[in-house]
Amino acid sequence: MNKFDEKIEELRAQGFRITKTRKGILKILFSSKNPVSVMCIKNLLTKQKIDANKTTIYRELNFLLKNGTIESIKLDDKMAMYEICSHHHHHIKCVECNKIFEIELDEDIEKYEEKIFKKTGVKVLNHIFEFFGTCGPCNNPRI
């Protein structure tokens, strides 16, 4: 059983309905390598012959956010994008083509969070690192 099927069964076991729209959104997010916008989700649902308006999509995304299935990524104060929660990672966005890449940092961020707590008494609940640059193809455009 793949992760998509496992998540569907987990939601069913918790007593949640698996509507066409919910299943379609999960299918999109599990198959995507990069975070996906609401407009992209809407377009991909249409290709799956699932008619869902933006309100329904946002409602489903909020449900999936609340139960920890997905997370919201918001780079450079632009629209939110969504992806499946898998492991802790960050993103870098190409400022030329807007492609988003997943990156993992070698540094132990939790150590910094502990230092912050010891120094200020503030427990870090979440953090956001935003990285921006130009990707390989944008660095070396063909003339």
The first-level CATH class of the largest domain is given as: Mainly Alpha
**Helix/sheet category:** alpha+beta
CATH H-level superfamily title of the largest domain: Winged helix-like DNA-binding domain superfamily/Winged helix DNA-binding domain
Low-pLDDT stretches are none
The count of domains is 2
Tally of strands: 6
Order of helices and strands: HHEHHEEEEHEH
In what range is the share of β-strand residues?
Answer: 15-25%
Helical segment count? 6
- Enumerate the strands of the largest sheet in spatial order, edge to edge or round the barrel: 1-3-2
Helix content: 40-55%
CATH architectural label of the largest domain: Orthogonal Bundle
| CATH topology (fold) name of the largest domain | Arc Repressor Mutant, subunit A
Mean pLDDT: 87
Radius of gyration: 18 Å
Note the overall shape.
globular
Describe the structure.
It contains 6 helices and 6 strands; from the N terminus they run H-H-E-H-H-E-E-E-E-H-E-H. Helix content is 43%, strand content 16%. The longest helix has 13 residues, at 54-66. The strands form 2 sheets. A 3-stranded antiparallel beta sheet has the order 1-3-2. Strands 5-4-6 form a 3-stranded mixed beta sheet, with no helix packed on it.
